[in-house]
Amino acid sequence: MRTRSNFLLLSTLFGGLLFTCLFWMERLAINLLIYSVFIIAISFFNSEIIKSKKFIIYAIANLFAAVLVVINNSDLTLATYYISLILFVGFAHYQTIRNIFSAGLASLLQIMAVPASILRHLYQFKVGRFNLKPIFKLTKYILLPIIIVVIFASIYSSANEVFAHYLISISHSISLFISRIFSFIFQDLSIARFLHICLGILISGGLIITFYNRSIEKLESNCTEDLIRNRRDKDRKSLWFEIANTFTSTIVSKNMALKTEYVIGVISFIALNILLLMVNFIDISTLWFGYKPSGNFSADLHNGTNSLIFSILLAMAVILYFFRKNLNFYSKSKTLRFLAYAWIIQNLILIISVFIRDGYYIEFYGLTHKRIGVSVFALLCIIGLATVYFKVGKQKTLFYLFKVNGNIWFALLLIFSTINWDVFIAKYNLAHRDKISLDVDYLLSLSDKTLVVLDENRQILHFTEGTDLADRTYAMPENLSYYQNQLDQRIGFFKERYKEVSWLSWNLQDWRVATHFGFNKR
């Protein structure tokens, strides 16, 4: 136990020093890959962690996400890296957890509880006859009185201005004294750098040291993937029942009969199917075949798409409500299941309409992150409806839905991170400039990764007078060289930024841009 505590504490200290060496005044790039290798290596040699399939899978996923940061270096890849790192820590330290949401929560709890974890291991730290227990014994007699004195001193200072003046003077003198001692001992180390090291120690400790509280594992162990029929206890009343009964009297004093809930579900799904059938019929007849844009086309598509996506999410919530408990085991529930399946199919048709709307938007206005996001979200809705269909058919629980969808979402996140979206958008819009309204301002707002593509096409980055579908003329820039000047300014900013960082900030995209323009690091 002591040997493991010593190993974890030394690893945490080294991790803090490595953290500041890798990330101080640097951009996030290859340094993230190095840090991940360190965290995974320490976790591998930690005897407290079992090297199971989960450990290997999520370790590989985190390393893959780190490599994607080096290759694509986008906000999406950074988000994917952080998520993969949190999941790796969660599944590595708490391997009985089955759900990525529970793993993420457990990992965040471990990181927040790192001070307590470090103190626990410091108390167990021992090298030969040397240990820190005497210091802890002395600290517990001093720490609490100091906290009490600070609290009451703050209260008294707010009530007495003269006392507050003296308190500020004393605090300033103590701070100046500590600063001078720090500067004398660490002449080449600034306070900001020291705080950065402390931050690195806290983060490294949170990723390395297992938090002793296993409450999330215990809570999740009670969750099942298959529904079980529960017999209702008429004499047992929940807190919610008592509160509701106070305001509604006899309206909720009796549990809704299973047959009554079934009839309500059948009526609801019949009405919803008829309603959605009308919407789908209109979309198929007006949108799917022979669609001709008119009026405020952009606003119509935008508002329509948002409403449809919201309706799909609401549809899944309605299905989950009716098939949450004993109605799944009702002997006459075949009709309700058939109606639910029909509504799921109709919602899939509705998603096709969302894809078609988004396709028209891209056809007339080009690609943007939001339009790509709509397609990705529609794809996730299809996956969600498919798993809801399986949940209804196989009588699965909500926990099962979260588990399956969470794994699929994480896998898709890794897949989508392999694409350099900014460069893809710029190349697509420039290649289709004769068919779409080219928004040069949007292209110039993309990340530095697109500078090579924009520079190679700088001759077409000029104002082309045109009108949108509402016959409104686009605003003309100051002169024909307006966009070229903006591009040159962006290139200059990149040059300055690229020269300020070391090899630790190296990534493939910055290297390509720097090579194209012939920039060298200092």
Automatic annotation (TrEMBL):
Pfam families: DUF4153 (PF13687)
TM segment ranges: 6-25, 32-49, 55-71, 78-94, 100-119, 140-157, 163-182, 194-212, 262-291, 303-323, 338-360, 372-392, 408-426
Keywords annotated in UniProt: Membrane, Transmembrane, Transmembrane helix
InterPro entries noted in UniProt: DUF4153
Protein name: DUF4173 domain-containing protein
Organism for this UniProt entry: Pedobacter changchengzhani
